[in-house]
Amino acid sequence: MGNDLTSITAVPTVLTLAQRGPTARSVLSPTARGAAGRRESVRVPGPRSPAAGRDPWKVTMTTTEPIGAAEGGVRTPERHPLRTSRDYRALWAGDLVSQFGSKITEFVLPLLVVTTLEASGVQVGLLQTLYMAPFFLLPLFAGVWLERRAGRPVMIAADLARFVLVLGVPVLALLDILALWHVYVIALVGGALTIVYDIAATSYLPRLLPERQLPAANSLVTVNQALGGTGGPGLAGWLTGLFGPAATLVFDALSYLASASALMLIRHREKTVPRPADRDLRGELAEGLRSVLGSAPIRAVAVHAGIYNAGIALVNLAFLMRFVRELGHGGGDFGVVMVSGGIGAILGALTAPALIRRLGFGRAFLTVLSFSTTAYFLLTAVDGGAGDLLWAALAYFLGTAGASAGSVIAVTMRQRLTPPGVYARMTATYRLITFGMLTLGTTTAGVLTDTVGARITLAGAPVVLLLSVLPICGRSVRTLGRLPDRAAA
């Protein structure tokens, strides 16, 4: 499961997703151990409301709880889904194994084509381009296709297909018939399968668990990503040294098989949403776009994520060029910095649910952004002195801690604000925006480091991260506290 915000969210709150709505009805929210409930006014689509028909995502919710009361105080703490849900345990375990396997492939596949197939730099670049191409071309159509289908069978099929696909590389190498075009096809199809799996997985979680368990569930998914990103490359390097690049891919193939097996253990059966008879592909795509662009909070987070992704791409490439090429630090020092970032990401993800309960979505988001956007200014202190490693490790620890927590908050917020019938299309639209900006940032970073230099690029890149906070300062997100459960509404 992918979290798509690399950055990836109390108060009297008013959340507005539409200018007008049907009449409000009140809900009395029970609190723990017989304490008095909180009365909330929740605007929901009525049976005769247009919002219940063509635009189900247009819904206005208001909460009247005081600052700091969001899901906190005397409310009984929600039990963790790892303890309460056998199905979630299976999903989480399969995802953890798959994350490690995917990082092995990301490390090994370029190494394989360089060492075994003697590929040139242009050919290695084409390999990466082919893998990334589906991320631009496929998401919107995949979102429409997935919306009316159960997510679990799709994820199982994607895992099994990737198992066969990745296993094909060592088999072809063993038969001594592996060619570069084989790897290109595998990269292209593998990228497409990854997109389908990730959109299905992100949309599946809100169907599997109660809404109050989503922060903790998303937190552990983000921890999986951090663990895979931190430990996967090291594991890949160790396995490559023992078995060689081609044989190492067997472990990734087995990780997909393990993930599919874990998904098969899930007993939960989804209720699919039937496609309206009068809705064509254009209408489905338009509704997916409106689910992001027409919702003030989700639109603000998408703009933030796009700007942040462009900025962090600038930071990462400029830091690599500055730290390794210009200042002469070795791969060991660079690895220490990346590991410190991985540790920060794990701690940030684990902290996010408590921040949401304590502060509400908006104030929690702004709190973690204060770390994820300002920490990278510390990299300007990396100038070839004795403290380089300390400053760099601290910057990435704080920055990724904030970004990881922000990812959990943003994903949970989007899941809570989006009606079930639009989950997949919303996720697809959101990913298209954020991934496009990430690619733009990477391309721009390459041009800037070659023209103005890595030092100047690294000094200016954190300013872009600061600019990403502006959309979150608007009322639609900043004042977003506790969101009423759909069941309560």
Please tag this protein with its features:
489 residues, mainly alpha, Growth Hormone, Chain: A, 4 strands
Summarize the structure.
With 489 residues, this protein is mostly helical.
Which helices and strands appear, and what pairs or packs with what?
Layout: E1 13-15, E2 24-29, E3 38-43, E4 61-63, H1 81-84, H2 86-115, H3 121-137, H4 139-147, H5 151-174, H6 180-208, H7 214-243, H8 245-264, H9 281-293, H10 296-326, H11 331-374, H12 388-417, H13 423-451, H14 454-467, H15 475-478
Helix pairs in contact: 2-7, 2-8, 3-6, 4-6, 4-9, 4-13, 5-6, 5-8, 6-13, 7-8, 7-11, 7-12, 9-13, 10-13, 10-14, 11-12, 13-14
Protein described:
The longest helix has 44 residues, at 331-374. The protein has helices at residues 81-84, 86-115, 121-137, 139-147, 151-174, 180-208, 214-243, 245-264, 281-293, 296-326, 331-374, 388-417, 423-451, 454-467, 475-478; strands at residues 13-15, 24-29, 38-43, 61-63. Helix 4 packs across helix 9, helix 6 crosses helix 13 and helix 7 packs across helix 12 (388-417). The chain has a single domain (81-214, 223-478), classed as Growth Hormone, Chain: A (Up-down Bundle), CATH 1.20.1250. It is globular and about 55 Å long. The chain is mainly alpha-helical and 489 residues long. The protein is built from 15 helices and four strands. Strand 2 (24-29) and strand 3 (38-43) form a beta hairpin. Helices cover 67% and strands 4% of the residues. The strands form two sheets. Strands 1-4 form a two-stranded antiparallel sheet. A two-stranded antiparallel sheet has the order 2-3.
